[in-house]
Amino acid sequence: MRLALAILASVAVSAILIAVVSSLRRFLIIRQLSFVLFVAAIAAGIKVFTLFNPGRFQTLDHALSWILLFLASITVIRIAGLLYFDLHLPHRGVRLPTLLPIVTVGVAYVVAGLVTFKVSFPEQSMSGLFGAGALTTLVVGLALQPILGNIFAGVVIGLEKPYRINDWIRIGDVEGRVVSISLRTTHLRTRDSDNLIVPNSRMAEDRILNFYYPHPMHLERILVHVPFSVRPYRVRRALLEAARGVPGVLEKPTPDVYVRTFDDRAIIYELRVWIEDIGQQPRIHSDVRFRIWDEFHRARVPFAYPVRRIEIPAREKAVRPVEGAPSRARLFVALGDEAGQQIELGERRVVVGRGKNCDLCLADGQASKEHVAIEWQNEGFVMTDLETSNGTRLNGEKATRAVLRDLDRIFIGDTVLVFEADGV
After folding, report:
1. 303 with 296: CB under 8 angstroms?
2. Beta-carbon neighbour count of residue 282 at 10 Å?
3. What pTM did the predictor assign?
4. Which end of the chain is more exposed for a tag (fewer CB within 10 A), N or C?
5. Rounded distance, CA 354 to CA 390, Å?
6. Spatial distance between the Cα atoms of 72 and 318, rounded to a whole number of angstroms
């Protein structure tokens, strides 16, 4: 009769506790602790069974006491972890690596297990337990050395945070976007949309280039080969126009152009642009090169390519140009609202100004209706200021009349004209 009553009481207690836990699973904390609470309910029922037979199941009673105490400690630790890591820190805007809460709670579980074991079995010496644990740890550690190395590397990565989710990184000759960081591996999504799984031990040992730290901006360089005969300011303007308005290219910092070097067949220019996402690098490179071709074609700037030319000197004398005839020359607008325009110069008198009847009409508010005239005379092309109120500057100095030389710069207000002689 006593045994049947003990069994009935044990089953009743377990059933009641399981029912209570099941009814409270709508709460987040209960759902997180449901397995622990179910085990505790079963252990509590067995504990009730031992109470009906005091002293008969002493070892089982101590074991159940330890299990209940350990599960209670786990419950407290888990609730504290949820409140701190999942509620308090996110509310304050602090985002911790995924691995850090897991490792912290795991260490707390181990400490709680050892402490509750000593409380439940005070007469038991912990030295044997530690010795057996050390031996077991050694054997398991040797067998699982690669896995444990990856796990510890994952913990270090979680603490130091050399990269985060959505960062674009390069490790070795592989690069991609970080999509997942686990205890053992890091997952990268490559440009080909393939999932690359890298062990954390390698991530901890190799050099990592993070394109998103400290900011996602990235400098890109595009090299262009242009013949020596093309004026550098023409190339610079065409390259800057090509970079303007391309999706993904930032306006600030502004694009810039550098002369990289002179080789045996061309000048190598470097267009530097800042992009907002390294993941879009191939598309942005393609779009900028499309625009470079268009701008060079519009500005009549040729690309350099290998040329082999064989010249055989003519036996007869070359025909000399007619004496007194003007050489080929032009005016090129380098700066101003009309930048990029040009006008050919010849025997005809050319007038530059703000008036509609001028040969080269400027929108500059400081220009007069007829500002300067350029005409061919025996000494060459002569620039004459037409008695303007704001005056004209030649190469930075005020001038009323001057014979123009190749690459002379004429300043009319904020507009800059370049005199080009003998072709491009």
Report:
1. yes
2. 9
3. 0.58
4. N
5. 13
6. 107
Q: Could you give the CA distance from residue 293 to residue 302 in angstroms, rounded to a whole number?
A: 9
Residues 423 and 230: their CA atoms lie apart, in Å, by 10
Which residue in the block uniquely carries the two structure tokens 């602790």? 33
200, 150 contact by CB (below 8 A): yes
CB neighbours of residue 59 within 10 Å: 8
Phi-psi category of 396—alpha, beta or left, where left has phi over 0 and alpha has psi -120 to 50? left
Q: What is the dihedral of CA 399, 402, 406, 407, to 10 degrees?
A: 10
Residue 206 contacts residue 246 (beta carbons within 8 Å): no
Please check whether residue 48 is in contact with residue 69, taking contact to mean a CB–CB distance below 8 angstroms.
Answer: no
The residues that bridge with 382 in the sheet, in sequence order, are 375, 403
Which stretch of DSSP H or E encloses residue 155? Answer: helix 145-160
Distance of alpha carbon 25 from alpha carbon 382, whole angstroms: 95
Amino acid at residue number 380: G
Report how far residue 136's alpha carbon sits from residue 180's, in angstroms, rounded to the nearest whole number. Answer: 32
Q: Is the CB of residue 346 less than 8 Å from the CB of residue 326?
A: yes
Count other C-beta atoms under 10 Å from residue 46's C-beta.
18
The region, left, alpha or beta by phi > 0 then psi within -120 to 50, assigned to residue 55 is left
Distance CA 93, CA 102 (A): 19
Q: Using one digit for the tens of pLDDT, what is the confidence trace for 264-275?
A: 889 999 999 999
